[in-house]
């Protein structure tokens, strides 16, 4: 459709657009369009454009704005996206289905909409779901340049922790030994390997370990990740089986005194594994210890527990006390970055 536009040389486009915007003359219903020689900036009132600018009629395309669920519902619903899955958390079934319908009718690329039907439960750390749209709980989630295949019906994964995971990954140095004690599908393990670390990752959820193998290969770090299905305490103190692309081998406590970095992302019960973390630690090792604590004492209990497990064999220095997110009223998910230095 031909609409009034200011025609300017390409090199003057941004300055002219800003000038017209300052005068509230840019027509937001149409897109700014260019060719080899000029930009065409749609304007709302051509008669108000300064005489030193050239106003012409030009066939500018209508600007297409993305329709969001909030546009459809009239309120901003809470949801998370993992790949092409949208997750809602609604107690009211009718409200959940209204949100699901709005998500599908919006411009969000989605194949499945799930509603949380239970809390995380059991050793496998999985939950029940109500499938509101679609028929698959499997997806590929992208995070900071990495891809993670996963099935939400069979494994635990939280996109809310992406920033925290990236904070830890940025501390990893090439060549270091990193041990992820509760690895899931590999959102710590795979990026640590991409950063150049040799990584050992354990999880009691065998399906998660299968996905971890796939994700290591998918991200080109299969040769730097050893993924072991089983309780990390058994891996360190006894024997376990490690499934690798080159076969199945026995692991018999070979990781004692091995690690330069240990990730302990099991906030409710990580304290039960501190003796194992200390056994893994080499002469100089950083623990990333995750915890859930009341707002009035977020870090003291974790620090006390780490000192009890590591001293006097190690000097214990807390390098970071960091609140990751709110977990429940007056409770917070926190992390301690703690350096253990053998005496």
UniProtKB/TrEMBL annotation:
Residue span(s) of domain SAM-dependent methyltransferase TRM5/TYW2-type: 79-342
CC annotations in GO: cytoplasm
Pfam hit, one: Trm5_N
GO terms, molecular function: tRNA methyltransferase activity
One BP annotation, GO: tRNA N1-guanine methylation
Keywords: Cytoplasm, Methyltransferase, S-adenosyl-L-methionine, Transferase, tRNA processing
Protein name: Methyltransferase
């Amino acid at each position: 459709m031909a609409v009034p536009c200011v025609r300017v040389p390409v090199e003057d486009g941004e300055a002219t657009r800003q000038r017209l915007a300052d005068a509230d003359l840019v027509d937001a219903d149409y897109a700014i369009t260019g060719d080899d020689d000029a930009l065409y900036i749609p304007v709302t009132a051509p008669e108000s454009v300064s005489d030193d600018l050239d106003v012409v009629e030009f066939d500018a395309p209508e600007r297409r704005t993305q329709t969001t669920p909030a546009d459809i519902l009239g309120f901003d619903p809470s949801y998370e996206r993992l790949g092409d899955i949208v997750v809602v958390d609604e107690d009211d079934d009718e409200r959940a289905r209204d949100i699901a319908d709005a998500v599908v009718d919006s411009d969000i690329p989605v194949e499945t909409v799930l509603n949380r039907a239970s809390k995380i439960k059991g050793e496998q750390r999985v939950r029940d779901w109500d499938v509101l749209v679609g028929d698959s709980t499997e997806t590929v989630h992208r995070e900071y340049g990495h891809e993670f295949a996963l099935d939400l019906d069979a494994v635990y994964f939280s996109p809310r922790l992406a920033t925290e995971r990236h904070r830890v990954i940025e501390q990893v140095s090439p060549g270091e030994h990193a041990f992820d004690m509760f690895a899931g599908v590999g959102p710590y393990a795979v990026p640590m390997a991409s950063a150049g670390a040799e990584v050992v990752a354990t999880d009691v959820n065998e399906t998660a370990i299968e996905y971890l193998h796939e994700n290591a290969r998918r991200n080109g770090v299969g040769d730097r990740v050893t993924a072991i299905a089983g309780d990390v305490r058994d891996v360190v103190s006894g024997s376990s089986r490690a499934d690798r692309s080159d076969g199945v081998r026995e692991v018999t406590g070979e990781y004692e005194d091995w690690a330069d970095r240990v990730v302990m992302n099991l906030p409710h019960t990580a304290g039960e594994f501190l003796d194992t973390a200390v056994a893994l630690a080499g002469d100089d090792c950083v623990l990333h210890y995750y915890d859930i604590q009341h707002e009035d004492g977020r870090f003291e209990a974790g620090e006390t527990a780490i000192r009890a497990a590591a001293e006097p064999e190690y000097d214990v220095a807390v390098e970071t006390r960091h609140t990751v997110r709110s977990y429940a009223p007056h409770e917070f998910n926190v992390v301690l970055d703690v350096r253990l230095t053998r005496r």
